[in-house]
Design brief:
Layout (H helix, E strand, L loop, with lengths): L8 H28 L3 H22 L4 H24 L11 H18 L16
Amino acid sequence: MSVETVTTPKVEAFYWAAITLSQTLGTALGDWIADTGGLGYEGGALVFAAGLAVTAALYYWTDVSRVLLFWAAFILTRPLGATLGDFLDKPLDHGGLALSRPIASAILAAIMIACVLMLPQRAAAIGEGPAVQR
């Protein structure tokens, strides 16, 4: 699904439903893995980080559908963010680091900014394959 194809109310409704569903289910999945999966916040974050690493490997070394890989990565970032956020701000006796929410948010923002700066991208031309910095 490309944002350029969102040109009618029906397509826009589908687009926002997909975004909302992935956000909600991804966050709930992160909480479920951390709380009931017995992995805790650190273990849950590692599971989702490993899932993203597998998705990246599939992107670089296979011909798996780029749309499928995009949505897999898009969905996996939600539980990763939820488990990392919980790890940073939950109390020590619940497996967290007991940092304040503003500090936890600042740490996550710094990580995101560092990733954007370290992993530069270029725009793909129309009809060109995925944009890959080589």
